[in-house]
Write a structure and sequence with these properties.
Blueprint lengths: L3 H4 L10 H11 L3 H12 L7 E5 L5 H9 L3 E6 L2 H14 L3 E5 L12 E7 L8 H11 E12 L5 H10 L4 H18 L3 H10 L6 E4 L3 E7 L4
Parallel strand pairs: 1-2, 1-4, 2-3, 4-5
Antiparallel strand pairs: 5-7, 6-7
Helix pairs in contact: 3-4, 7-8
């Protein structure tokens, strides 16, 4: 008998394959400085040789930057076949080793307690089963490990979005497409702080700590030591 996670489409919208994945890769390349900053922050919290999983890495920018900065073993799991191919090629071009795989965030192909850290950026709002995804993150984390979810705030204003896009250096077309995506569906899918706190409380983590950013939030979820 199939599980719900296998019957349910794992993502909202049309998905990131083909030209859409290639456009997303190009436009997210304008945010490379942010990915580097995030990778530096995560690397500073990890012990030597830690195993790190990025859930929904997309083009793999964060995972690649983290692999450059540390001796961590980095794995990425994405539902998109095209993005896995793009990320794998990007890691090879950067001269780093990252194990990018295709798979579902609610049914990860990893043994329990496989990773010291889990990272997920700009993707959690797109999961159709967010609670199941949180529970899978908890399952694959080792005791004492931490999951970090970075995503858009539901209460972000159009002015804040416009400032973000203007400062990113996108081309006119990419800026227009990015604003359209935010206004058409990304903000609608985003969570409020209260919703994230409730999901975390209902998950196996039992709660989280949230820090607000210019247009988003960071939620830290820790798996207690036995």
């Amino acid at each position: 008998m199939q599980t719900d996670s296998k019957r349910t489409k794992p993502y909202r919208g049309i998905g990131m394959e083909g030209w859409m994945a290639r456009w997303y890769t190009r436009t997210r390349g304008h945010d490379l400085a942010d990915f580097r900053q995030q990778a530096q922050a995560v690397a500073g919290r990890l012990p030597s040789g830690a195993r790190v999983l990025e859930v929904a890495p997309g083009p793999g920018f964060f995972a690649i930057e983290l692999a450059k900065l540390s001796d961590c073993s980095v794995t990425g799991l994405d539902i998109s076949h095209t993005l896995v191919e793009i990320a794998t090629a990007g890691a090879a071009a950067a001269g780093v080793r990252v194990d990018f795989r295709q798979g579902n965030a609610t049914a990860m192909p990893f043994a329990a307690e496989s990773f010291d850290s889990v990272y997920c950026s700009a993707a959690f709002k797109n999961f159709t089963q967010p609670l199941a995804a949180l529970d899978e993150m908890h399952r694959v984390l080792r005791p004492g490990g931490e999951a970090l979810i970075v995503d858009l705030r539901k209460d972000v204003s159009l002015a804040e979005i416009d400032r973000y896009v203007r400062s990113s250096g996108r081309t006119r077309f990419d800026a227009w497409m990015t604003r359209w995506a935010f206004r058409s569906f990304l903000v609608r899918r985003a969570y409020t702080v209260e919703q994230i706190n409730r999901l975390a409380a209902e998950s196996r983590f039992g709660g989280c700590q949230i820090t607000l950013g210019p247009i988003g939030f960071e939620a830290r979820l820790t798996k207690p030591r036995s």
